[in-house]
Design a protein that fits this description.
The complex is a heterodimer. By secondary structure, chain A is α/β, with parallel strands linked by helices. Chain A has helices spanning 42-48, 76-82, 104-115, 120-133, 139-142, 152-164, 182-197, 209-215, 233-238, 243-250, 335-342, 365-368, 392-404, 414-420, 437-450, 467-484, 495-501, 519-524, 529-537, and strands at 4-13, 16-26, 31-35, 57-60, 63-66, 69-70, 87-90, 170-174, 201-206, 218-223, 226-232, 293-304, 307-319, 324-328, 350-355, 358-359, 375-378, 455-459, 487-492, 504-509, 512-518. Chain A has 19 helices and 21 strands. By secondary structure, chain B is mainly α. Chain B folds into two domains: 2-70, no CATH class; 91-304, MetI-like (MetI-like fold, Orthogonal Bundle), CATH 1.10.3720.10. Chain B contains 13 helices and no strands. In chain B, helix 5 packs antiparallel against helix 10 (211-248) and helix 12 crosses helix 13. The longest helix of chain B has 38 residues, at 211-248. The chains are: A alpha/beta, B mainly alpha. Chain A binds chain B through residues 47, 50, 52, 80-85, 87-89, 91-92, 94, 96-102, 107, 110-111, 114-115, 146, 148-149, 159, 162-163, 165, 304-305, and chain B through 198-200, 202-210, 213, 217-218, 221-222, 295-298, 301, 304-305.
């Protein structure tokens, strides 16, 4: 008997159907993955298997069986019995996937309290056992912590423990490793692998084929509410039939050399340069040019209870025109502080930052301001970097006029700015909230380029994007750099992305640069054990 | 730090009151000698001015008042000739009881209303919103009159004036609590709706938790956080509302004492009442701070950082 057997599942919100007849079967000890972009209907499908498709959702199916029990028209009471006991749900790690006001021990205890008549002492023992099982250090102590007091990886372990509390035969993991650092991601994936080995069926939902390829026995590719391709993981990854699947596979940046396009089919028009591109030698072709941005033994600390935390510790970097310097490291390693120092938003405690040979960090803000246009920045969360009341046109026009101030040259036109990031001119009239994630990041890039900077700081620019959109944005950045000779400081926790984008790379850990050099040299033969670990953990397709 | 802030607030309140009360037209000496209607002789007025130091420059009077306050002496009532501290001490209990009861009732009403009206479809939501808005907008004097008309004159359930019994407290407490409940419920509904959108609610439902369970164990707590922070302000607001309510229901209390003292230009009593209310404000701010930290562990962490 399969754990899960559904056929012809349809979910509609009002008159708008978002899942069009999905069929799916999972056996014990099997991991089936649904892959697709945001909006493909994969999460709604997963929630529908718990009777939780959402407020106002209508779910119909020819067959919806969990452990042989038909749940097609089950009442809320029956669903409640299924949830937690028969099927566990693991959400994406977020500070709020566990109630931030309650200790995680209570959250893990909930399924036991709801479904089982167990004495409190036995429940307590079970909670500690679960925490130990998911690899939580010091379960006794951890049980009393709240989600905000734990790191992302430990939070995700707690969330997994709460889903496993009653050993449900089936676990649904909805983007379980998204937003986690690569090494944490690798550990969470191997934990899920152990659970599967113990006989639990897993439905894995992800946009990331590299993640899926580590765990899944079978893969379903979803697009616009339909399963367009389905098969054994090896077949789907090794010999995909559908062009869309091929695009998804091509979009995984790991092990793809610098300069190769990741996006197969561009949905946005390719920008046509109005003048022949000035060919600027990139990367190692131009080693003799003086650095545009230089960090010389920079240190920056913050006060924490019980002392001072050195977020950046004796960091020296050089960034040359037309070159990309990748900065890779886990959250908390000091990457973003480096970005803030480079942007002159915070001053170093010791050492200097030089912009084009001139003092940058030690200058009073009044002198620094006219130089600011030379450095642009894009961030992970493009949306919150915009004024939500401003239209895209106003955002860009404002950036362009501020950037042109005092330079004597005309401000670039909004249409040209949009055009060079592959957006049509009509986007100018829209507001950021009404754009997709990829479009927002394109607007953010256009805004950063409006002042015609020499240096672009990219702080996790694609971490919040689907892998196919990520590929388009990475291609766009690469193209823009070639055309304009931009120097880019590319910060990411994703080694695959950094490797694909960078000429040189610096690996950061606890505020220090533990290894740096040419990208291929560093990653092909890492000298520092930490780099070696990062390389081993990087998500790659393993068909 | 906290103590310094509290002292600063008390000083600022004393100073503002001292100067503000001088802006009311009329002669304090006249007030001391029985109010504007009295036929006090010029000699008597001069005598009183000397006795009370009213002939000295304003700034000297101000410093003298501060010096008295520092030693804990609130002065003597002009009208009643009794120490202000004794006068207020006897009134504080009744007013605080009224305010605290009103706050509790407001909380219960607000929780009930916001819980009932959220997650129950559009109609319930709209009804809840309408009731909250109407309640929050009700002026005390009007509400009191309506409540008396219905429950006292009409139904005869409760007495129209305070009798010192529990029944006599019902209408005054309701008058104070209903507008506050409307206000608190608006805040709670917002944060309830917000909490219900959070992923941890999905997690909880996926464990098999019932709707009631989710409310009890998760969302109520989140919804209470802003309302807890507002409660300190609310108690102060209730004390000022008590002026109106105590007058309407003829209850003895700080509010009525304040009103009388202002009419009689009884400066020491006015200053005393204002300082006392300010003190309650300061204490309540500390209490709500502590309560917020108890309810929201995230605040404790931020404090430590």
């Amino acid at each position: 008997m399969p754990l899960l057997d559904i056929a012809g599942l349809r979910v509609a919100f009002g008159d708008h159907e978002v899942v069009h007849g999905v069929s799916l079967r999972i056996d014990a000890g099997e991991c089936v993955a649904i892959v697709g972009e945001s909006g493909s209907g994969k999460s709604v499908t997963a929630r529908a298997l718990l009777g939780m498709a959402g407020a106002g959702a209508r779910t119909r199916s020819d067959r919806l069986q969990v452990l042989g029990r038909e749940l097609g028209d089950a009442s809320e009471r029956i669903w409640r019995d299924v949830r937690g006991r028969r099927v566990g749900l693991i959400l994406q790690d977020a500070l709020v996937s566990l109630d931030p006001l309650r200790p995680i021990g209570r959250e893990i205890d909930d399924p036991l309290r709801i479904h089982e008549r167990m004495p409190p002492a036995a429940r307590r023992a079970r909670v500690l056992e679960l925490l130990a099982r998911v690899g939580m250090p010091d379960p006794e102590f951890a049980a009393g912590r709240r989600s905000g007091e734990l790191s992302g990886g430990l939070r995700q372990r707690a969330l997994i423990a709460s889903a496993l509390a009653l050993d449900p035969p089936l676990v649904i993991a909805d983007e379980p490793t998204t937003a986690l650092d690569v090494s944490v991601q690798a550990r969470i994936l191997s934990l899920l692998g152990e659970i599967r080995k113990a006989g639990t069926g897993i439905l894995l939902i992800s946009h990331d084929l590299a993640v899926v390829s580590r765990l899944a026995d079978r893969i379903l590719v979803m697009r616009r509410g339909e399963v367009i391709e389905e098969g054994a993981a090896d077949d789907v990854l090794g010999s995909p039939r559908e062009p869309y699947t091929r695009a998804l596979i091509a979009a995984v940046p790991t092990d793809r050399p610098r300069g190769t396009a990741l996006a197969v089919a561009r949905s946005a028009p390719v920008a046509i340069p109005e003048s022949p591109p000035a060919v600027v030698p990139t990367g190692s072709d131009a080693p003799e040019r003086p650095p545009l941005l230089r960090f010389d033994r920079v240190a920056k600390g913050f006060s924490v209870p019980g002392g001072r935390l050195l977020a950046v510790d004796d960091v020296s970097l050089e960034l040359r025109p037309g070159e990309t310097l990748g900065l890779v490291g886990e959250s908390g390693s000091g990457k973003t502080t480096v970005a803030r120092l480079a942007l002159g938003l915070t001053d170093p405690d010791s050492g200097v930052v030089l912009l084009d040979g001139e003092a940058w960090s030690s200058r009073p803000e009044r002198e620094r301001r006219p130089m600011r246009r030379r450095i642009g920045a894009i961030y992970q969360d493009a949306l919150s970097s915009f004024d939500p009341r401003w239209s895209v046109g106003r955002i860009l026009a404002d950036a362009a006029s501020v950037g042109a101030r005092g330079t004597g040259r005309p401000a670039p036109r909004v249409e040209d700015l949009l055009d060079q990031v592959g957006l049509v001119a009509s986007v100018a009239g829209r507001r950021p909230l009404n754009l997709s994630g990829g479009q927002r990041q394109r607007v953010a890039i256009a805004r950063a380029l409006a002042a015609e900077p020499d240096v672009l700081i990219c702080d996790e620019p694609v971490s919040a994007l689907d892998v196919t959109i990520q590929a388009q944005i990475l291609d766009l950045l690469d193209r823009l750099q070639r055309r304009r000779g931009l120097a880019m400081l590319f910060i990411s926790h994703d080694l695959g992305v950094v490797r694909h984008m960078s000429d040189h790379v610096a690996v950061m850990r606890s505020g220090r640069i533990v290894e740096s050099g040419g990208t291929e040299a560093v990653f092909a033969e890492p000298r520092h054990p930490y780099t070696a670990q990062l390389v081993a953990d990087a998500p790659r397709l393993t068909p | 730090m906290l103590a310094a802030g509290a002292v600063f607030v008390m000083w600022a309140v004393a100073t503002l009151t001292f100067f503000a009360i001088r802006l009311i037209p009329g002669d304090p000496a006249q007030a001391i000698l029985g109010g504007p209607g009295s036929q006090a002789s010029q000699e008597a007025l001069d005598q009183v001015r000397r006795d009370y130091g009213l002939d000295r420059p304003l700034f000297v009077q101000y410093l003298a008042m501060l010096a008295r306050l520092v030693t804990g002496d609130l002065g003597t009532s002009y009208a009643l000739r009794t120490p202000v501290a004794d006068l207020l001490g006897g009134q504080l209990g009744g007013t605080m009881l009224l305010a605290v009861l009103a706050l509790l009732v407001a909380w219960v009403l607000a929780l009930g209303l916001s819980l009932w009206s959220t997650g129950r479809g559009r109609v319930a939501g709209a009804v809840g919103e309408g009731v909250e808005l109407a309640a929050a907008a009700l002026p005390h004097f009007w509400l009191a009159a309506v409540l008396i008309a219905i429950f006292s004159t009409g139904l005869g359930w409760f007495p129209p004036v305070a009798t010192g019994t529990a029944a006599g407290l019902v209408l005054p407490v309701a008058t104070l609590a209903i507008p506050l409940a409307g206000f608190l419920a608006q805040v709670m509904r917002e944060s309830l709706l917000d909490a219900m959108q959070q992923p941890f609610v999905v997690s909880a439902r996926a464990r098999g938790e019932s709707t009631t369970g989710i409310r009890l164990r998760h969302t109520i707590r989140h919804a209470s956080l802003p309302a807890i922070s507002l409660s300190g302000w609310a108690l102060g607001w209730l004390l000022s509302g008590a002026v109106v309510v105590e007058t309407i229901f003829a209850m003895p209390g700080l509010g009525r004492t304040l009103l009388k003292a202002v009419t009689l230009r009884d400066v020491p009593v006015v200053t005393g009442v204002v300082l006392l209310v300010a003190l309650v404000y300061v204490i309540m701010t500390v209490v709500t701070d502590v309560a917020s930290r108890l309810a929201d562990p995230r605040l404790r962490q931020e404090g430590a950082r």
